[in-house]
Amino acid sequence: MRRNTTRTAAGLGAALSLFLLSACAADGGASESPSAGADEHEAPDATEMQSRTPRVAVTYDGGVLVLDAMSLEPVGDLALEGFNRLNPAGDERHLLVSTAGKFQALDLGTWAEAHGDHSHYWTSEPRLTDVAYDAVEPGHVVVHEGRTALFDDGTGEVRVIDSEHIADADAAAREYTTPAPHHGVAVELADDTLVVSEGTEEARTGIRVLDGDGKEIAASDECPGVHGESVAADEAVVIGCEDGAVVYKDGKITKVDSPDSYGRIGNQAGTEESPYVLGDYKTDKDAELERPTRVSIIDTRNGEHELVELPSSYTFRSLARGDDGEALVLGTDGQVHVIDPESAKLTKSIPVIDEWEEPIEWQEPRPAILALDGSVYVTDPATDSIHAIDIESGEVWKSAELGVTPNELSGVLGTEAHTH
């Protein structure tokens, strides 16, 4: 594998050789307008703040609404047609919007700059930048250890970019293309190891692990229906399967079996401070829409797999992790269910919104949950509203009407990116 830089917008000049790290992959494929870039705090509309300013973004039919995370007041409303998905970009300033034919950088207008032993904090109006990474079918985005991995389901192309440069037009990228296109996922570890899914358009079968030079160092074909990922403590990577999961850690792949012959884990929520990974859990292979009431907890240290029964069903947008590692599940009973992952026990349930039912079509709006900066946010499409919750006290400390029907939900802290 190689890294290089290529600018795809006219007039942007030669690649920046200083960003070539240790010479790894091909064309990063990003472009930007001359007025965009990382130094936007110099723009007239930038304001210096006393502290960081987290912001939350929600998609709706026709655009993206950006809110101040404390006041829940709107700070930007950006028109964008189509069904759009939000992904963390890794730099705590931008999100990557999966939109028609590309991953597009969305600047939430909040960031920090380190100055020796302190930082300066800035805000500006949110905006959709011209920086975009072409993708036939933009799929999963995975952020880990200061690197952001993009997966194009239409081509099987993986691009890995330094998170702090994700919105730079000339960002260097490590590139790898899977043997066949599929709905896949990839994550790069601190030592440049790349964990990537294996499959075709007809079937996803397992994972491959490549070193920094692209040489295969481990592989497994024991993961039918590969879907989703999470990175836990000590860089344990969990990939979901239709019969459990596989865990890659310390050069070894371990299969974690479900107690049911079909026990699908397709969405996970992990934290790099905890060895436990929260996952969904479905057992009806033939269901048009299964409404599960159990979730999975995997201990990545030993491969133990526990199931937790909940008072209600939930959906793929229902999983999150609290600041103390709590496993959080937003139920269709309108409550946030809090699970202690170590004991695999439900510890409390916090009422937030009214009961709701998952729609048949996965693109249709449904409540979503986001953990950010010590709070947990829940959207409610039925009332076009958003709520902020303190998990420890169980208090809904702020609510706001959005004026639009929310769908996807994400946010940024407004701090410096973690570097690789």
3D architecture notes:
The chain is mainly β and 420 residues long. The chain is built from no helices and 36 strands. The strands form 9 sheets. A 5-stranded antiparallel sheet has the order 1-15-14-13-12, with no helix packed on it. A hairpin with a 2-residue loop joins β3 and β4 (63-68). It is globular, with a radius of gyration of 21 Å. The two termini are 18 Å apart.
Summary, kept brief:
This protein is mostly beta strands and 420 residues long. It has strands at 3-4, 47-49, 55-60, 63-68, 74-79, 85-88, 94-99, 102-107, 110-115, 118-123, 127-134, 138-144, 147-152, 157-162, 173-177, 186-188, 194-199, 204-210, 216-220, 227-232, 236-241, 244-249, 252-257, 268-269, 276-280, 294-299, 304-309, 319-321, 327-330, 335-340, 345-351, 369-372, 375-380, 385-390, 395-401, 409-412. 0% of the residues lie in helices and 46% in strands.
- Overall pLDDT confidence: 90
Largest sheet: 5 strands, antiparallel
The total strand number stands at 36
Going across the biggest sheet, name each strand in turn: 1-15-14-13-12
- Coarse shape: globular
Number of contiguous helices: 0
Topology:
Elements: E1 3-4, E2 47-49, E3 55-60, E4 63-68, E5 74-79, E6 85-88, E7 94-99, E8 102-107, E9 110-115, E10 118-123, E11 127-134, E12 138-144, E13 147-152, E14 157-162, E15 173-177, E16 186-188, E17 194-199, E18 204-210, E19 216-220, E20 227-232, E21 236-241, E22 244-249, E23 252-257, E24 268-269, E25 276-280, E26 294-299, E27 304-309, E28 319-321, E29 327-330, E30 335-340, E31 345-351, E32 369-372, E33 375-380, E34 385-390, E35 395-401, E36 409-412
Antiparallel strand pairs: 1-15, 2-10, 3-4, 3-36, 4-5, 6-7, 7-8, 8-11, 9-10, 12-13, 13-14, 14-15, 16-17, 17-18, 18-19, 20-21, 21-22, 22-23, 24-25, 25-26, 26-27, 28-29, 29-30, 30-31, 32-33, 33-34, 34-35
